[in-house]
Design a protein that fits this description.
155 residues, mainly beta
């Protein structure tokens, strides 16, 4: 009997930086000019991961923490299962990306901001889920997993 050995696949050590992801007002959909790769520590590596830099304050918590302006986020493009309370990257109809928390809004899917100053938005067929935001870093060096937040915008 012949034995087959498949080569071992290694999880990438660096994530391609694809651009900016809005956390506030929608961004210009123009392409991101600076192409680079961000080194990612082993516990945060995933197949299909992409890095984005936060632009805006809609995902900043009242105490100033969370996904703040200038922070880096990692998106797992293979994790498309929308689960209530998790943060996802959504592609808007104009091509821009936003990071929002998925929740039901009046019994229908919606996007919520962690900052209560921003109103929730309904999801529709023109808005596409690009993957779950699973980690963030304020400086691009020290990473932490994003947290699930149960229902309640002020918690």
């Amino acid at each position: 009997m012949q034995s087959f050995f498949l080569p071992r696949r290694y999880v990438p050590t660096k994530a391609p930086v694809l651009g900016f992801i809005g956390a506030g007002n929608l961004l210009d959909a123009s392409p991101f000019n600076q192409q680079r790769r961000l080194p990612i520590p082993a516990p945060f590596r995933r197949f299909g991961m992409f890095a984005f830099q936060i632009s805006g304050d809609s995902m900043t918590l009242p105490d100033g923490t969370g996904l703040v302006q200038g922070a880096w986020v990692l998106v797992d493009s293979h994790d498309l299962f929308t689960s209530d309370g998790h943060v996802f990257a959504f592609r808007m109809p104009d091509g821009s990306l936003v990071a929002k928390r998925y929740r039901l809004l009046g019994g229908r899917p919606g996007m919520y901001s962690d900052n209560v100053a921003y109103a929730p938005q309904r999801l529709n067929a023109d808005i596409r889920n690009q993957g779950r935001v699973y980690a963030y870093s304020v400086d691009g060096q020290a990473w932490a997993f994003t947290k699930y937040r149960a229902w309640g915008r002020s918690s």
